[in-house]
Amino acid sequence: MKNIIEKIKKTRLATGEELLMLLKNTDGEIDEYLFSCAREVCRENYNGKVYLRGLIEFTNYCKNDCLYCGIRRSNKNAKRYRLGHEEILECCKNGYSLGFRTFVLQGGEDGFYSDDMICEIVSSIKKEYPDCAVTLSIGEKPRESYERYFNSGADRYLLRHETANKEHYSKLHPPEMSFDNRMRCLKDLKEIGFQVGAGLMVGSPFQTAENLVEDLLFLADFQPDMIGIGPFIPHGETPFAGFESGKVRDTLAMVALSRLLVPKALIPATTALGTIHPKGREMGLNAGANVVMPNLSPLGVRKLYDLYENKICTGEEAAECLACIKGRIASAGFEADMSRGDRCGF
Ligand code: 5AD
Ligand code: FES
């Protein structure tokens, strides 16, 4: 199996059979080898740097009803909040003074924020902090909206594909959401010129190893600039409350294989991975991840952005999280980097 890993590392190509075999591997030594190859490829491209992004979760209102997500519209027990323009700028001010040069604005699909409002928020951040990158993560929109966001200065857009298998997609989402529209969005975002992030949950309900292979082949083909991979974690107020969390090992294998297939990708060691294992994010970095996204949202709303159970970092001020995460990055043998950290070669 090591020779297959070698080959994928050299050629950046893999067959479905090869990926399936690696995903199903249970030999810890082979896994270690896979992770070390992913680390090496990451180091060749990013020289041991781990980029920090300031995450602002600005609304937990959502018109969608994804079956896995704690802020789905059917969760009547969710306490809802939204941040105003000034509050968002306040988060950026705090983040900028801490050294952040990327702000990620993430939220549910909240119709309260018109395209005009999003554009105004983006352009005021870019005006105030022209040396910063702005990343949006606000879901599926018409192409025209994406074009407006881009023209107002947004640099990047995160929209996980969630699963590359259409049938599986329909088991995770209500009938009014479609796989085809998701793919349309990703294609539009790329054509418009964003640095685009795709990604998925590992161990989501009804997912098979073959589905994960499809995800990897999709990523290899689409070549996203960013790839977000975290374990599925159940949330008590969703239809998936009774399902198990994704496995640390499977998540790490997906991170490592994504690194080999998309060598220049920016791949976060996700908060979800840090939630299912106390050293999850460090393990993610060791398996080829190179981004961490500490939270800049106001402490008062942190706990309310409740996608899944037991989410970490909901009780810490941004400065505390930053210090904690810097320590973790250094202890894992990497160098924290607060610069914009665009995708290399972009
Ligand atoms: N467990 C893990 N990740 C989740 N997300 C949403 N709900 C969950 C959950 N229960 C992820 C989705 C989404 C991102 C913002 O958070 O992949 O795209
Ligand atoms: Fe948030 Fe450690 S990263 S407390």
Word description of this protein:
This protein has 346 residues and is an alpha/beta fold. The protein has one domain: Aldolase class I (TIM Barrel, Alpha-Beta Barrel). Helices cover 45% and strands 12% of the residues. The strands form 2 sheets. It has a 6-stranded parallel beta sheet. It has a 3-stranded parallel beta sheet with strand order 8-1-9, with helices on one face. The longest helix has 19 residues, at 28-46. The protein is globular. The model has no long low-confidence stretch (mean pLDDT 98). The structure holds 5'-deoxyadenosine and FE2/S2 (inorganic) cluster. Residues 68-69, 160, 162, 201, 230, 232-233, 235, 272, 307-308 line the site of 5'-deoxyadenosine (5AD). FE2/S2 (inorganic) cluster binds next to helix 14.
- Give the helix tally: 14
SS-based class: alpha/beta
**For the terminal residues, how far apart are their CA atoms?**
33 Å
The assigned CATH architecture is Alpha-Beta Barrel
**Helix amount, in percent?**
40-55%
The figure for the number of domains is 1
CATH topology term: TIM Barrel
Point out poorly predicted stretches.
Answer: none
Instruction: Name the overall outline.
Output: globular
How much is the radius of gyration in Å? Answer: 19 Å
